[in-house]
Write a structure and sequence with these properties.
This protein is of the alpha/beta class. The chain is 54% helix and 10% strand. Strands 5-4-6-3-7-8-9 form a seven-stranded parallel β-sheet, sandwiched between helices. Strands 1-2 form a two-stranded antiparallel ribbon. Strand 8, helix 14 and strand 9 form a beta-alpha-beta unit. The protein is globular, with a radius of gyration of 23 Å. The N terminus is likely disordered. Keywords: GTP-binding, Hydrolase, Nucleotide-binding.
């Protein structure tokens, strides 16, 4: 029995069934009548509905006419539809989230039946503020367009989730690329936790690919957890450094260098050319002592000037070489599968924590336990067990 409360406590992104009032029909996605009237979930209906596992699975492929239209527009490469779809996945409104999940399920089903014709490549790009990320993406993106690719640029901005402001999104960035027909540049969402933003970005990548963008760049700024999160959603992780830099090398950020499949020393031009050469040699020797992210690939170090457009082609060659090496060993499919599992667990963890925090009874219990833990009257482990027990009992009670 799935009670109304339990339904509400289920994550909207997982297999929470979509339940409709009005004309109810479970239909295969390849046989959908666009005249079906679906209106989003009716809690009153859900309250008395027994939903069994096979039905849940069937519901996940149900698509409303609105979803179908959006997905058709996406398949035709409409930037408007892409923007609208990403807005849906970023929205916290439950009806939007339901629509977004319907759209994503439909897209996944479609891609299982009919895989994308072009291979897709997801590239993460990180670097400290001012290192030249926008300038590089602008130059690199324009180069990719010349090579016949369609390029999407997404951003995971740790500052926006903490402060509501944004390091990456405030100024007009990548103006030429933003205007190009075959490019789509999405500013970072300005709300939500970093985990939430990252999760939305994962879904946005799928949407970009469904809209025919075969190269997706996910940009982040080198702060906190954001690089690790981005590295866990892309095929290849690229670190952009400046000629004066060295923070990363000095051990402050050794972790990020270890995550990197390619290090690009930007601003290798004019007076900065010699410094860029020296930094690039430093990285090349330092990397020899680090664990490579994959045993099949040795992290490369290259110099570019985004301003003067030099070395951009070499950077792309290195990326393609990585892509070819990994795909021919079937490692990218494996990597993407493993990443999906990582994200599933991240989301389970964050959903459970959200729900623990939103339940009044549990919240009160947590407050009491926190003070006991603080005073040393209870161990952290005992308190954690107790919170989980109270929460599970609460779920059980709600079910009855
Ligand atoms: N000389 C030189 N300057 C560059 C190059 N690339 C970027 N710059 C300059 O570096 C400064 C910062 O560039 P951005 O592209 O805004 O850097 P960013 O990393 O995107 O900066 P944030 O958005 O603040 O994170 C600007 O003044 C650029 O003109 C380059 O290849 N050579």
């Amino acid at each position: 029995m799935l009670s109304r409360r339990l339904w509400h406590s289920m994550p909207v992104n997982a297999s929470r069934p979509l339940i409709y009032q009005g004309t109810k029909r479970v239909i295969a996605s390849n046989n959908i009548s666009t005249t079906d009237r679906f209106s989003p979930l009716a809690p009153a209906y859900a309250q008395n509905t027994i939903i069994q596992a096979p039905l849940i699975a069937a519901y996940s492929t149900v698509a409303s006419s609105k979803t179908l239209t959006l997905s058709e527009q996406l398949a035709q490469g409409s930037r408007y539809a892409l923007a609208k779809s990403i807005t849906l996945v970023e929205s916290s409104r439950s009806d939007h989230r339901a629509e977004a999940q319907q759209l994503l399920s439909y897209i996944l089903k479609k891609q299982r039946d009919q895989p994308l014709t072009k291979p897709t490549f997801r590239i993460g790009l990180s670097g400290s503020p001012g290192v030249g990320k926008s300038t590089f993406i602008e130059a690199f993106g324009m180069y990719l367009l010349e090579q016949g690719h369609k390029v999407a640029v997404l951003a995971v901005d740790p500052s926006s989730s903490r402060t509501g402001g944004s390091i990456l999104g405030d100024k007009t960035r990548m103006t030429e690329l933003s205007r190009a027909d075959d490019a789509y540049v999405r500013p970072s969402p300005s709300r939500g936790t970093l985990g939430g933003v990252a999760r939305n970005t994962n879904e946005a990548i799928l949407l970009c690919e469904a809209a025919g963008y075969d190269v997706t760049l996910v940009e982040t700024v080198g702060v906190g957890q954001s690089e690790t999160m981005v590295a866990e959603m892309v095929d290849m992780f690229v670190l952009l450094v400046g000629p004066g830099g060295g923070d990363e090398l000095q051990g402050l950020k050794k972790g990020i260098v270890e995550l990197s499949d390619l290090v690009i020393v930007n601003k290798a031009d004019g007076k900065l050319a010699d410094a860029a050469r020296a930094v690039s040699m430093d990285y090349t020797s330092a990397i020899k002592f680090l664990q490579p992210p994959s045993p099949l690939w040795k992290t490369k170090v290259l110099r570019v000037s985004s301003r003067e457009n030099t070395g951009i082609d070499k950077a792309w060659e290195a990326m393609k070489s990585y892509f070819d090496t990994m795909t021919s060993a079937n490692k990218l499919t494996e990597k993407r599968g493993a990443q999906r599992k990582v994200w599933m667990w991240r989301q389970i963890t964050s959903e459970l924590v959200d729900r623990l925090n939103s339940d009044d009874k549990v919240k009160q219990h947590v407050a009491e336990l926190e003070s006991k833990v603080f005073d040393g009257k209870m161990t952290s482990g005992q308190a954690a067990d107790s919170v989980v027990d109270v929460f599970l009992n609460k779920v059980k009670e709600d079910r009855i």
